[in-house]
Amino acid sequence: ALITSGYAGYFGWHSPIQALHHDMTTSVSYRKIFVVGCPRSGTSWVTNLIASHPRVVTVPIETHVYPLIYEPFVRLPDQGLRSRLCSWKGIIRRYGPLPLLLGFESSDIWRGIWRDYQILNKKDSHGPRLLADSYTFKALLQTAQSRPGRDLQKAEQVICDLFDLFFSRQGHPGDTFLEKTPMHIRYVDRILSRFPEARVVEVIRDGRDVCASYKALAQQYAWASLGTDGVMRQWKDCIEHGERWRANDSFSKRIQSLRYEHLSQDPRACLQQIFEFAALDWTAPQISATVEMADIRRVKDRAAGEYVRKGAVGDWRQSLSAAELEICEAVAGSQLRLLGYTDR
Asked: What is the rounded distance in angstroms from the CA atom of residue 285 to the CA atom of residue 233?
């Protein structure tokens, strides 16, 4: 069992999950906003702008709950031996040797989710650690495993419970929940299907400026060392996901695309549009004060893990070499042109 009998006694007669459903008033859905887009596209700036609203409750870090909790059940059950061997270090670390050799059982994946939580449960790390403490998270996984149904459905319920737990602690009736994980753009269909009240703000930026941002951070942070080819492939993937979701009539009205370049040029108008899209009340003085406070060009003290830069539009002209620009064109030239990102 994922949780020992002694662990159940830690909470007394009621588990945290029983208490959640017994005491919470969030059975009535609360509004949710998810900020997504290719990393280094300005999602932090947009999140800070929205988070300034007094009726918005913001998760302070990227939760990555969909790749950590939902995606393993999509990707791992049918993974072949060759693919497993290519990822043997990560598999051994999270799941042990048997899944590497024999393939993944459901119980292996649930244990791996718990292991990921433990790995990420440290200061300045992303992940679900601020949504639920380790004891509660472990209990959520045990409860999910005991439910009938498919693992994917159980995983989505865990994510829902995590959001509810956070909102029950931080929010009030009428507040709006805000979460930013850029790569959740790959799961917008799941987010909007599971949460009918949710809205998604997709941030789009010139892929070449995204490359310039990664390049500036690569010497300091290992996660930024994707190379021009890797960054542009990631950017193209994010752009294509966004196009796919916006082309779906079931989702299109609940997604607002925001160009980073427009935000830089007229942040007041963009923030007003976001607030109206999210059904958040606003005043002109509030918009002006928020824009001034959150202007990334004025940021001096950057919190650990935020990796905020000046965010100049067209930085790629000074930052990328001719060879790097050729890679950008080869990987995603058609997407750049369709979005109006030309050499001008």
From this structure: 41
